[in-house]
Amino acid sequence: MQKIKVKQIRSVIDRPLRQKRTIEALGLGRPNWVKIHNDTPQIRGMVNKISHLVEVSEYVSTGEEKEKPAAKRKRSVKKTATSEKTKKSSKAKKEIKS
Q1: φ, ψ at 92 (rounded to 5°)
Q2: What is the pLDDT of residue 49?
């Protein structure tokens, strides 16, 4: 499948919300950010709506670049109310014993 390179060339400051969301959906966010997409009608339609903010060119793969797999996010464990209650109750038991 052919690929296209989309480069944001203008800022989204003072632009309508729909245009800001389209830029975000394309994976862009600041001027000079570049994103590679498959050349599909959906992507082309999004690019046409914000053509004054982006620059599009064909992407030719050199074979050296490989897409990195998505990094796994570390999930933090949230403290629940029950764990806090058990800590309090264990402290209370220690106080009673002493």
Answers
A1: -65, -40
A2: 96
